[in-house]
Amino acid sequence: MKDNLFCVTVDDLIFYPYPKNIQERLDTLREKNIKATERFISNQRSSPETSPTKKQAVEKCKDTNTSWKQIEDERLPLQNQNPGVIAWAKIAGHCWWPAMIIDYRDCCLKEPSFGCQWIMWYGDYKVSEVRHLEFLKFYKGLEKMRDYIQNTVKQCYLDGVLQASKDYCSRLGCSTDNWTLDNVFEYFSNMNNIHVPYNQLQVSDSNKIYDKYSDEIVKKINEFKSKPNVDAERKNDIKTSDALHRVISGECTVEKLCLKCLRFSKDKMEEHPFFIGSLCKECSYAFKPCMFVHGNDGKCFYCTVCAATGTVLICDTDDCPRVYCTACLKFLICPKAYDDMLSEDPWKCFLCRDESKQPANMLLHPRLDWKEKVSTMFRTASNPASKDINFENYKNQKKPIRVLSLFDGLSTGFLVLLNLGIVVDVYYASEIDKNALTISSAHFGDRITYLGDVRDITKEKIQEIAPIDLLIGGSPCNDLSLVNPARLGLHDPKGTGILFFEYCRIKKLMKKANKDRHLFWLYENVASMPSEYRLEINKHLGREPDVIDAADFSPQHRLRLYWHNFPFNPYMPLFQNQQDVQDKLTPNLNRKALCKKLRTVTCRTGSLLQGKAEVKPIMMKGESDRLWITELEEIFGFPRHFTDVKNLSATNRQKLLGKSWSVQTLTAILRPLCFYFKCKEDETSNNISALHKDISLLYRGKQF
């Protein structure tokens, strides 16, 4: 094979699609996998279901007399499984038992596993994680278990049934203070008392955290929170760490200690981004992607110090996503102030407090410059400078810019270039979303040339549209994010992660077609990807990314990784323009923002709700209100009514915005291009020229 190839063509070899024999083998394996999966599902349905979770308190008798059809009729629907709902739940090996569904955040628990709910059992008031299929409507469960209730001698079980019934019926307007189980059965024997609008009367509509629970459950939740479980494994690591003991005794400095594995390393270590200390190479590899994995409540899944899961303390600052495992808090950060911290309400974490308000006698101290550390921690070495860029050459020959935008979305790149006053010679865009194409066409018309699907852009098409000065793109992130447990990764041909290699292919072809003309490029993706994905992207792009949070330029948190070859730092103070949510609200209507920065806005409408209680972020005339879609457009940096095309609903407009780039962030990143390309001579460009003058003092005569 080697003898039959010229060196000039080796780089053009692409083994996708796969060779025929490889593809046939993959198809055969896929068919076998499908059949095996079908057999597994069939066996699961025909055999008793098992669960790894076991309640280790009171013995519950086995229930073997329930048909599948009967369970379907009695089961509590998933849409009604909300915090505060009283139902019957079951775990393997035990009978049905009354319980209340609780919010994991209210008890400092980890987010429930996929398809599960956290509950507090009536009677012994312990908590368990239960599959969503193992819930019965309350009155159905009472009817089902009536004979067992009347014959059992387990007092804990009887007390639990009575208290659950009293809580349930009190919500229906009954006075239950003096009720016994006889009163309960008498009440539910009347069919008119059963068919009540179930979900409406089950839980209070109040936004207050505890209004959804009964008084007894609130009492038990508070007791549970006052004595949170400390992760035994992490506690043991801290207690037995010789390296930590040497740091505490003063033999060594904390800067030499890995705060995750609590060991010293002979190899070069990286600085821990949040606390004074370090991370060894292996721990840094595991820690980095965990920093940005956030749940639907906007809070991180993993401890800020060690990236552990389990029982965590959550910062009550609305726009802070940080959480801390109880082991790190109690034994590593501030042992003497631990009990006092548990009683603080609200509790602000160490990164949100002023230095004067930090607990006394802390073993670990937060970094004052942690934001800067986070933004640079993915860079283990300086990215190579672009030696082929000469500022003087561009200054003498400033031309309009030629752009190719892949995964173009709402044409954010074109809008940013217009805002910067850069003259656009031609703007090619690859996009397949019909709604996005309609919006883009409505605003920019024939100023954008559409190329269709990125996979259909051929080598011949690249040669036809060359030269290109700027290549930008961000392939879909769903199959790369740690938040998605069903992610398919970078290489699965059925997923969207593989589209990254289309960006690489086109970038490579474009550099060759450009010949001696320099190509600026930018690639963006989610910060919460596993380290192996990030390192592979680094390898293909030849760069390490910048971590940039849109909150530094706009009113929302939107952490992303940006790979690029621009010579300037977007975090230069000259580029920053702080904005809060209040700045974007519709004026003259007395609308007040309850938070300064929104958590990351996604395609989900629920992502607009804020804080642990997921409240609406706006107050208007004394009532809570959602963000209006026109305000959301401004928060992303678009003009009002930008997506108001084609009678699109507010939900569909949010979906498009949720997949787009932040205009303000992209403006900060692309601003250096004003040095190299022709700008309009109007007020906008005059302002930019003044900016050029200031920055050029820093870079005069340098080559990048």
From TrEMBL:
Please tell me where this protein is predominantly located.
nucleus
Annotated localization: Nucleus
Q: Which Pfam families match?
A: DNA_methylase, DNMT3_ADD_GATA1-like, PWWP
Spans annotated as Disordered: 40-59
What SUPFAM superfamilies does the entry give? Answer: FYVE/PHD zinc finger, S-adenosyl-L-methionine-dependent methyltransferases, Tudor/PWWP/MBT
**Keyword rRNA processing listed:** no
**Per the database record, which ranges form the PWWP domain?**
83-141
CDD domains for this protein = ADDz_Dnmt3, PWWP_DNMT3
EC numbers on record:
2.1.1.37
Q: Where is the composition biased (Polar residues)?
A: 40-54
Which keywords label this protein?
Metal-binding, Methyltransferase, Nucleus, Repressor, S-adenosyl-L-methionine, Transferase, Zinc, Zinc-finger
Q: A GO BP term, please?
A: methylation
Record-level GO cellular component terms: nucleus
Q: Name one GO molecular function term.
A: zinc ion binding
Q: Which residues form the PHD-type domain?
A: 246-383
Q: Which residues form the active site?
A: C477
PANTHER family linked: DNA (CYTOSINE-5)-METHYLTRANSFERASE DRM2, DNA CYTOSINE-5- -METHYLTRANSFERASE 3-RELATED
Could you say which protein family the record assigns here? Belongs to the class I-like SAM-binding methyltransferase superfamily. C5-methyltransferase family.
Protein name according to UniProt? DNA (cytosine-5-)-methyltransferase
Source organism of the structure: Camponotus floridanus
